[in-house]
Amino acid sequence: MHPLQEQEQEHQQLIDLLDALDLCISNGDSANKVSKYLSDFVALAEEHFKNEEEIMETYEYPEILNHKKEHANLLEQLFILKNKLDNGQTPFGKDYMQLLRNWLEEHLLGTDNMLEEFLYQVNVNSNKTYILS
Ligand SMILES: [Fe+2]
Ligand SMILES: [Fe+2]
Q1: CATH number of the domain enclosing 117
Q2: Is residue 133, in this structure, part of any structural domain at all?
Q3: Cβ neighbours around 52 below 10 Å, total
Q4: Residue 83 Cα to ligand 1 middle (Å)
Q5: How far is the CA of 115 from the centre of ligand 1 (A)?
Q6: Containing structural domain, residue 12
Q7: If you measure from the C-alpha of residue 66 to the centroid of ligand 2, how many angstroms do you get, rounded to a whole number?
Q8: Calpha distance 47→67 (Å, rounded)
Q9: Interacting residues of 25 by C-beta distance below 8 A, sequence separation 6+
Q10: Is 63 a domain residue?
Q11: What tens-digit pLDDT sequence spans the chain (133 residues)?
Q12: What's the rounded Cα separation, in Å, for the pair 48 and 65?
């Protein structure tokens, strides 16, 4: 699978998992269940960010530092939240979910979109077919 397709697929998985987490909270499910979904979301986000950063390094993306900073900020927020939940606090509410969703959408539609455009241009300007074939 080429990097653009892989990125797209992982974004969809992140959105699906966030939807599942949202539903879980709306249904008033147990803290354990919420925690499990949140752990899955954090693991997936970590994996996805790592993959995306590898792509940026491979293709020498000029905006890599800012992009990595955004990833690190989100992960930090997620770890703080997960810690609170693991210690018995329930900081979740609709407001928080909305915040998380807004952040994800903003990153996907803004920062990640710029990277996608760059990868697309690299492909267009090269006769290699390693990105889009
Ligand atoms: Fe990203
Ligand atoms: Fe991404």
Answers
A1: 1.20.120.50
A2: no
A3: 23
A4: 23
A5: 8
A6: 3-124
A7: 13
A8: 15
A9: 34, 92, 93, 94, 97
A10: yes
A11: 777 888 899 999 999 999 998 898 888 888 888 888 989 999 999 999 999 999 999 999 999 999 999 999 999 988 888 888 788 776 566 677 788 889 889 999 999 999 999 998 887 777 555 555 4
A12: 16
Distance 40 CA to ligand 2 centre (A): 16
Both structure tokens of 40: 């899955």
Look at residue 79 and tell me if it is in a domain: yes
State the helix-helix crossing angle for 94-106 and 64-86, rounded to 10 degrees: 160
* Amino acid in position 114: M
Structure-token pair, residue 22 = 């949202």
pLDDT value of position 131 = 52
Tokens linked to 21: 């987490």
